[in-house]
Amino acid sequence: MLLGAFWFVEVASRGSFGWSALVIVVMVTGSLLAYRPARREAAGALVGAALPVFLQAYLLREGPGIVCSRVWLDDKENCRYMANPLPWMLAGILLVIVGVAVQRRVRANNRTAG
Predict the structure, then answer these.
(1) What is the pTM of this model?
(2) Cα dist. 49→23, 40, 74 in Å?
(3) Hey, which of 21, 57, 75, 103 would disulfide with 17, CB 3.0 to 4.6 Å?
């Protein structure tokens, strides 16, 4: 699950963590997929990728539109545009549903094969 979150953050940030983080995540993913029992749990990466998506939806919870708030230190008003959080919420729900569905299918195939 955490691996999926790392992958999403790396892709969403367009490599701003640098090549070293990308190399580490690719190596960890490759080593997990090379280990046969871990392959059965690989669908958890989809559910993990939903975590940053849900975080983004939470951070945009006051949107859509212009949201103004008072800054407590200098008593000024700060206004900013907040995007609609609904697409982020739907994307997170879709990632969780697909991850759970893939996991159930993999487990069903393992039961019939073994």
Answers:
(1) 0.66
(2) 18, 17, 39
(3) 21
